[in-house]
Write a structure and sequence with these properties.
Jelly Rolls; Tachylectin-2, Chain A; 3 domains; 8-stranded mixed β-sheet; binds beta-D-fructofuranose
Length: about 575
């Protein structure tokens, strides 16, 4: 056995001909990370770090499809004994437990094994939504950034596929986006088989540079462009923080003449028809820059807006659905945003920064090329899932719209309508109920998430009427979900003022999965997400106080409790 301090020359080695689909690897978080390399003729070398262990806490796997029939040599700069446990098989070790694990979210996307963060390359193509994501397939903590991949017909039922972008000599694969190059302006495909084109950041530690990849089989297999990187802007910014390219096709439809049809088709011309060009929005140090291109390979810097950090998004929306009043929304990683205009080269802010969601949502991205032109956003939550061999999850996909409010035009975010297909009614009551009456109803056998135990994936909708109270809210098993203070005008500690400033009511739409809770207030004007806490954050069963509305003399109207069907 090696003592772990050995050099490459002393690394443990395993060589075999690949006959099976998967490689199973034993992992323990108690081990140090050591370099693990994969080498086979005709396949790019892969070098990552892993915590292989002779006393594994769990197993991870690697898809071996691209190595099939080849001699594969694996070297590990750590325990030889641990490496000797690595084996190929046509089955993934412990696959029979997938999606049945105690703390596996039931209606949110998670990866089978390993870590996930930002959604990447979100796109609809040929009947499927593609979700790529920042992924460490080798353990449940951040490292070895790779693009994972899953597809879904409805953004709820996901199938996970093999990862598509692996670390290379330019670095690890950081966040990025995807577009459908319908007219093959990039030349990566043909007129008959146009490509999906991806932009991503390669992070080498001392440098972040922007790269391009493309797919000719509808997003399953990605090929890196041999001319990478296409943008290296470190010198301009004297900073290595230049990342997360967001692609889209721009046409000058923002003019009144071109207004017709914008609402139904804001991406008219996404494929490169008529006048227009490709836009790449890039986070560079302290804000978002705009680059433009005609072929997705050669990029020209145009402008910069200060005030954002990481994960840009930029898109047009028709205010209140009016195609003659289109505004552009520029977002940063924590869902702060500015509203303004965009002439294809410069974004001019008119208002902001605003924020429509708080809590654990981060690095959200909207889908490109959606068939019905909805602007659908999906965000990441860094949720632990207590001791599971996977970490992190995507939050519910939401539809974004722009609405005129008493404070001006604002983004509104509501779960996509498809979520309703998962709901099975348990309690419906329209009449006014006291807090006590409501709590009693919610504590009945079928309705109680506590009695339902971990199976309890729930949706609760209610209107809270303060009547006399200055503060009121809702707890679940002792955890505060809604904490409204009319005196301070705060909702869970954030300033919140209802549309009718004299209103004593608040509507809440709450989605409760095994490890996360999302709350949408007043039809999506404000939303927040949080980790669902279990007793003392241990693996113990939850405390059993159930739902508790609280507040002096409050009443509850339009109460609706649904079970949420599992997506697995
Ligand atoms: C945001 C982020 C991105 C980066 C990625 C790396 O969470 O820091 O800026 O591309 O994660 O995993």
């Amino acid at each position: 056995m090696f003592n772990g301090q050995c050099s490459m020359a002393e690394a443990a080695e395993l060589s075999f001909r690949v006959k099976c689909r998967y490689l199973n690897l034993p992992i323990s978080q108690k081990e140090e990370r050591r370099r693990l390399t994969f080498h086979a003729k005709g396949v790019d070398d892969l070098s990552v770090v892993a915590r292989l262990s002779a006393s594994p806490e769990y197993w991870v796997f690697k898809d071996l499809t691209e190595y099939k029939g080849k001699m594969l040599t694996i070297t590990y700069e750590g325990s030889e004994e641990a490496l000797s446990l690595v084996y190929q098989a046509d089955t993934i070790r412990d696959a029979s437990t997938f999606y049945k694990e105690t703390y596996r979210p039931q209606f949110h996307f998670t990866t089978r094994r390993g870590w996930i963060n930002d959604p990447n390359g979100c796109i609809w193509h040929n009947g499927l939504y593609h979700l790529y994501y920042q992924h460490n397939p080798f353990e449940r903590e951040w490292e070895n950034m790779t693009w994972g991949h899953a597809t879904s017909p409805d953004l709820l039922h996901w199938t996970e596929h093999a990862p598509v972008l692996h670390p290379d000599s330019l670095g690890t694969m950081f966040s990025g986006s995807a577009i459908f190059d319908k007219d093959n302006t990039s030349g990566f495909g043909t007129k008959k088989n146009p490509p999906i084109v991806y932009a991503y950041t390669a992070d080498r530690g001392d440098r972040e540079a922007q790269c391009i990849a493309y797919s000719l089989d509808g997003g399953m297999m990605l090929h890196k462009y041999e001319g990478n990187p296409v943008i290296d802007s470190r010198d301009r910014w004297q900073s290595h923080d230049t990342r997360d390219p967001r692609l889209f096709w721009w046409t000058p439809f923002n003019s009144p003449l071109q207004g017709e049809g914008i609402y139904s088709s804001p991406y008219k011309g996404e494929a490169g028809r008529g006048s227009g060009h490709w836009v790449l929005v890039l986070n560079e140090r302290n804000g978002h820059s705009i680059y433009t291109s005609d072929n997705l390979r050669d990029w020209t810097w145009q402008s910069h807006v200060n005030g954002f950090w990481e994960c840009p998004d930029l898109f047009p929306l028709a205010v209140d659905g009016n195609p003659n009043n289109v505004k552009w929304v520029m977002l940063g990683a924590s869902n702060t945003y500015m509203i303004g205009s965009f002439d294809g080269k410069t974004f001019t802010p008119e208002s902001g920064k605003h924020r429509f969601s708080t809590g654990c949502i981060y690095a959200a991205q909207t889908f490109s090329n959606t068939p019905d032109r909805r602007r659908i956003q999906i965000g990441w939550a860094n949720i632990d899932h207590l001791g599971m061999p996977f970490r992190g999850q995507m939050l519910l996909p939401t539809e974004l719209t722009l609405r005129t409010t008493k404070d001006g035009v604002r983004l509104v975010s509501k779960p996509i309508h498809e979520v309703a297909t998962l709901l099975k009614p348990i309690v419906t009551s329209e009449k006014a109920l006291s807090a006590q009456e409501t709590n009693e109803i919610l504590r009945t056998k079928e309705a109680s998430p506590s009695r339902g135990g971990l199976e309890g994936s729930l949706h609760l909708r209610a209107t809270l009427n303060l009547t006399y109270a200055t503060s009121a809210g809702l707890r679940l098993d002792g955890q505060m979900l809604v904490d409204y203070d009319l005196n301070r005008n705060t909702l869970n500690g954030q300033f919140y003022s209802p549309q009718d400033p004299t209103s004593l009511s608040l509507t809440m739409d709450i989605y409760i999965d095994r490890t996360s809770i999302e709350v949408f207030i007043d039809d999506g004007l404000y939303s927040f997400s949080m980790e669902r806490r279990w007793a003392d954050n241990t693996l113990e069963r939850p405390v059993t106080s159930g739902f508790e509305f609280w507040g002096q003399d409050i009443n509850i109207t339009d109460l609706k409790l649904d079970a949420v069907e599992s997506c697995w």
